[in-house]
Amino acid sequence: MFAPYNTNLTAYRRPQTKFQRHTFKTTWTYKFCCLGGPNEDEVPDKPMKRILIETGLGEKKLALVKNKDAEYLRDALLEHYPKLKDGGGYELMRSSSRTLLETISIPSCGYTTHYLSDESGLGSAICYIRPLQAQLSLDAVERSEPSEFCLKEVCKVCGEKIPIVSLRDHLFECKEQCEHDQMEDMPVITKRQKRLEPIHDSACVRLNS
Hints:
By secondary structure, the chain is of the alpha+beta class. It contains 6 helices and 7 strands, in the order αβαβαββαβββαα. Among the domains are: 24-131, Ubiquitin-like (UB roll) (Roll), CATH 3.10.20; 152-183, no CATH class.
């Protein structure tokens, strides 16, 4: 009466959604600090840290994908520290005391994110990047133009809204221009000279008499 049940039919499977197919990558966030030269063996002091930051080096917090090879780590560091390309390779270091640095031993496959996060013993210490062959440029990095979405603040000198990233430079120029304008608007005060009256002959006669 009824057709026999086909046992050879495969069980129906609901297609996976895009969210289910997505594989999440485990990231590792860590603080790095790029040094300026191959002979650096001390922890940078505060003035040097500021110089390094202004030149595009110094401390940065990077979010890296774990379980990646040495090539991935190299490309990630070069992306955040473009000047490192001129260093002729790099080695990683950590602080051995409050002032001295020591090299982190390089495994046979090179530095990887897995090695740094799980096997190097870095812990919470800053990972220092030292160029191997050449001194990096310490020229200040030019600031890019602020975007249209940048937060703005009103200048208390001229009243204009200025992007916060360029407000300090604007204040310096704005105050100079304001002082210059005030000098031009000030009235010119000249010293009044005394008028010398000529001595008449009649006065000389009276004096002689």
